């Protein structure tokens, strides 16, 4: 191969799509360990310099990584040595995709950067989907739109909904006069190639998609909207291996029809998923006790219908789940590994199993997370990590997200980067993250303050922080009726005042949703005192009435708080939950207290300038940070 041509090809692969090379300087064209390539290129009307270094100019893979800071958890990107190449300045950061672009967020807005850390898309969107077929879906105040890889909006208007691209088409929807969504399809240019006329629309696959024309009628259409066939059934599912799940009546049994509409398997299942590689997962439950099985195209059982759930792991493997509590299937499953022919390779021993990739899958039990091979055995040549989560092999490194923390290591188990557990506040004070996991379903990360002069005061403060965080006796071997996860962030620090945000999420198995919780301890790092809301104000100031009126006026006059139930708000309590920063007091309410669950924690920002006349500026609380 021509060495120079190889290097030029490599350079082009490392430049943004649509860029134009202006000048290139390659040291050591003998190619024996090229040290450096300097490229000047034009992109989007601006000129840039790209410097590539390393033995044989090996391409650099970047990995998203979070650290805890005074500003909360921040994300950046490390190289395969564990060094930050793009500084951790983002609120959130997803992996770089094959187009060498990454979706990141700042100040509650999303944008896109390239591998040089430059903005390709400004931080202006409420959300951005992953790229699919060179397109991403963005949401702003106007609605859903589509952008290309340069960040250019290619749709000529906003929609109520746009799905990801599949087979050159993306489902879109707008609401009609009755408020119901009507669906159609966009092409890769963002144009409406099939107008909005369906009650439902599914993704295209191999040039075909199922749409709902009206109640009791579905159709299979091609990429231009031409009808291949129609089906007069209450429900028709997605096409798979030439067959479609269907129901003759809503809440009735499921069977399968072929593309022509001929019934291939009569309705006899309580749930039927699309076929994939001549197998389909079905359920024959008659009540709340699941009975999942695996069938072939004749309807014969490959795996008997007697399991709590079955998950397709790819590569001809399934995770077959047996209920932890048979009488309460919603508690979850313990899994065995089986193959496409119904052979079981393991007993029911795994708590979680992810999809297979290149012959291995991430799995976990009560104590560890590890890889298993296609026989369901632990892959002893790959690392094992204590805790519950997932492992993923990524270009020579393994990423673990275990017990909600990120770690990177080599295939031989050498750790090259892990999330920090110490947050420095200044030269004297630090916050240490401690972990409490007495049970597989109970996990708390709680803060401990370090550096206080009086160690007895420090211990008392830390004991209180443990209690506030949910550290309490939990039976190691008990099967709990719930899961609980607790964590914390530094909300504010100045002078002697440390404000921590302690969060929790309690989820009872079988519930519609969990219940979040928040607390903001305000700790004086000199005295160890935990300040309450009343400590901010002068005695006799009637701060409850003053703050209640300010919040009541906001609810009444500010459209931002239109979600609040006006009749439910009765003012604040003397010990109302709150937190502070340098310029504001924040008063918040629990979910359901004055607004729907979806509203989260309704929060009201009150600038000190509006209430300075009642603040005790000579008090310990105020002077702790002023």
From TrEMBL:
Residues 534-609 form the DUF3298 domain. Gene3D superfamilies: Fervidobacterium nodosum Rt17-B1 like (3.30.565.40), Heat-shock cognate protein, ATPase (3.90.640.20). It comes from the Bacteria. This is DUF3298 domain-containing protein. It comes from Clostridium malenominatum. The lineage of its organism: Bacteria, Bacillati, Bacillota, Clostridia, Eubacteriales.
């Amino acid at each position: 191969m021509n060495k120079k041509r190889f290097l030029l090809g490599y350079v082009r692969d490392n430049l943004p799509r649509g860029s134009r090379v202006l000048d290139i300087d390659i040291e050591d064209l003998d190619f024996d360990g090229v040290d450096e390539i300097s490229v000047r290129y034009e992109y989007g009307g601006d000129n840039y310099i790209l410097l590539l270094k390393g033995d044989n100019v090996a391409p650099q893979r970047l990995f998203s990584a979070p650290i805890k800071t005074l500003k909360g958890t921040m994300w950046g990107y490390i190289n395969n040595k564990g060094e930050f190449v793009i500084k951790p300045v983002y609120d959130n950061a997803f992996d770089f995709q094959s187009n060498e672009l990454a979706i990141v967020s700042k100040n509650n807005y999303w944008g896109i950067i390239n591998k040089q850390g430059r903005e390709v898309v400004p931080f202006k969107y409420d959300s951005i989907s992953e790229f699919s077929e060179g397109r991403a879906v963005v949401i702003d105040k106007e609605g859903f739109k589509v952008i290309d890889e340069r960040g250019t909006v290619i749709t000529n208007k906003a929609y109520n909904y746009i799905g990801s691209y599949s087979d050159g088409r993306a489902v879109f929807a707008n609401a009609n006069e009755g408020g119901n969504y009507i669906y159609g399809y966009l092409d890769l240019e963002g144009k409406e190639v099939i107008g909005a006329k369906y009650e439902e629309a599914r993704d295209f696959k191999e040039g075909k998609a199922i749409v709902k024309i009206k109640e009791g009628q579905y159709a299979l259409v091609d990429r231009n909207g031409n009808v291949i066939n129609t089906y007069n059934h209450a429900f028709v599912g997605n096409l798979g291996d030439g067959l479609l799940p269907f129901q003759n009546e809503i809440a009735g049994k499921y069977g399968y029809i072929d593309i022509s509409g001929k019934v291939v398997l009569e309705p006899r299942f309580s749930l039927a998923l699309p076929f994939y590689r001549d197998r389909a997962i079905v359920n024959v439950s008659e009540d709340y006790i699941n009975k999942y099985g695996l069938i072939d195209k004749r309807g014969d059982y490959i795996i008997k219908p007697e399991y709590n759930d079955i998950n397709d792991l790819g590569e001809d493997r399934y995770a077959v789940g047996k209920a932890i509590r048979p009488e309460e299937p919603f508690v979850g499953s313990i899994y065995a590994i089986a193959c496409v022919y119904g052979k079981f390779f393991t007993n029911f021993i795994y708590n979680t199993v992810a999809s297979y990739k290149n012959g291995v899958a991430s799995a976990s039990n009560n104590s560890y997370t590890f890889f298993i091979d296609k026989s369901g055995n632990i892959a002893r040549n790959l690392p094992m990590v204590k805790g519950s989560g997932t492992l993923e092999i990524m270009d020579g490194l393994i990423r673990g997200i275990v017990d909600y923390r990120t770690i990177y290591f080599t295939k031989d188990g050498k750790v090259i980067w892990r999330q920090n557990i110490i947050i420095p506040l200044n030269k004297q004070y630090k916050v240490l993250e401690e972990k409490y996991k007495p049970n597989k379903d109970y996990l708390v990360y709680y803060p401990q303050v370090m550096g206080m002069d009086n160690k007895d005061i420090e211990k008392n403060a830390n004991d209180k922080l443990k209690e506030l965080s949910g550290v309490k006796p939990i039976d190691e071997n008990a099967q709990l009726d719930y899961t609980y996860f607790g964590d914390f962030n530094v909300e504010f620090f100045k002078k002697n005042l440390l404000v921590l945000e302690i969060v929790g999420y309690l989820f009872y198995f079988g519930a519609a949703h969990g219940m979040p919780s928040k607390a903001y301890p305000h700790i004086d790092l000199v005295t160890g005192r935990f300040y309450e809301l009343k400590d901010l104000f002068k005695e006799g100031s009637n701060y409850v009435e003053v703050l209640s009126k300010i919040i009541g006026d906001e609810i009444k006059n500010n459209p931002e708080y239109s979600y609040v139930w006006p009749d439910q708000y009765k003012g604040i309590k003397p010990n109302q939950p709150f937190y502070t920063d340098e310029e504001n007091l924040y008063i918040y309410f629990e979910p359901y207290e004055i607004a729907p669950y979806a509203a989260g924690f309704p929060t009201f920002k009150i600038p000190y300038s509006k209430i300075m006349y009642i603040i005790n500026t000579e008090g310990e609380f105020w002077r702790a940070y002023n």
